[in-house]
């Protein structure tokens, strides 16, 4: 009897999912190294895969580096969702990244879906996330 009730609940859940529901084959990872240029520009990277946003959404990557109590969030490049594992890179110019220096830091990469209402963002949902301690290296 309990099994029948559980099966009925599961079937109801499957069939009542919203029509615009996101495909859940999404993933992101952060590479263990980050780089800072002589002018202070910071580069973070990793890899991701996704199958696509809902018909009313778009995908983006957000990367955040935390070091010595300071946080810097950086948007990544164009996201292509075709199921293929791809590399992502997020780059902040030197004027925006004054608190990042060579040494240990924590980087979080997030694969996000932006739901739109017309041309305006309605909501942002994080579909996949990876947080890792990284080594920030100075480029010469």
How would you sum up the global shape? elongated
Discrete helix count: 1
What is the structural class? Answer: mainly beta
Alpha carbon gap, first and last residue: 69 Å
Helices and strands, in N-to-C order?
Answer: HEEEEEEEE
Mean pLDDT: 81
Low-confidence stretches: 1-23
Radius of gyration: 19 Å
Portion in strands: over 45%
Give a quick account of the main beta sheet: strands, pairing sense, barrel closure.
8 strands, mixed
Helical residue percent band: 10-25%
Total beta strand runs: 8
Please characterize this protein's 3D structure.
With 140 residues, the chain is mainly beta. The termini are far apart. Strands 1, 2, 3, 4, 5, 6, 7 and 8 form an eight-stranded mixed beta sheet that branches. The chain has one helix and eight strands. Strand 2 and strand 3 (42-49) form a beta hairpin.
Write the layout of secondary structure elements.
Elements lengths: L1 H14 L11 E4 L2 E4 L5 E8 L7 E11 L2 E6 L10 E7 L10 E15 L2 E19 L2
Parallel strand pairs: 2-8
Antiparallel strand pairs: 1-3, 2-3, 3-6, 4-5, 4-7, 7-8
């Amino acid at each position: 009897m309990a099994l029948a009730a559980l099966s009925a609940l599961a079937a109801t859940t499957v069939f009542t999912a919203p029509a615009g529901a996101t495909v859940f084959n999404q993933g992101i990872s952060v590479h263990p190294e980050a780089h800072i240029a002589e002018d202070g520009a910071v580069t973070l990277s990793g890899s991701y895969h996704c199958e696509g946003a809902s018909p009313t959404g778009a995908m983006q990557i957000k990367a955040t580096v935390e070091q010595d109590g300071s946080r810097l969030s950086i948007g990544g490049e164009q996201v292509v969702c075709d199921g293929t594992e791809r590399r992502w890179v997020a780059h902040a110019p030197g004027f925006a990244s004054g608190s990042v220096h060579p040494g240990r830091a924590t980087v979080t990469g997030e694969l996000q879906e932006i739901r739109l209402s017309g041309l305006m963002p309605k909501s942002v949902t994080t579909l996949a996330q990876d947080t890792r301690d990284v080594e920030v290296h100075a480029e010469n």
